[in-house]
Design a protein that fits this description.
By secondary structure, the protein is mostly helical. The protein has seven helices and no strands. Helix 4 runs antiparallel to helix 7. The radius of gyration is 26 Å and the shape is elongated.
Length: 130
Amino acid sequence: MPRAAASLVGLTLALGSGFSPAPQTATQAQTSTSSPAAAMPPTPAQPQTAADKSVASWMATAAMVADAWLDHKVPRAYALRTLQTAAKRVRAQSTAAGAERRATAVEHLLAAIQQDADGDARRALEELRP
């Protein structure tokens, strides 16, 4: 089969299967070359400031350590020390949205682990998560 006929058969098969290549506009070409994250506007769930990022990071750390303690994967002393630090660091970020409420949630979790109360720790962990 001649080369032109083979190309035509390939194009026919591609178009017949629902594939229709559309030319890109200048805006589409520009957007596709930049990173997808840069093209997307920030969502309200994403941290916006350094304080918000710090709070989000410490909250994730607190949740991860609490999960590990509940699964008996980390010692109680390690969990307590990490949660004390997390509460202190979150409370220090007073400019972050909800920092006070989140610090209180970490402190509830800390108190439950201090009392070695799995049920209370699980409830406090749910309070901790967004």
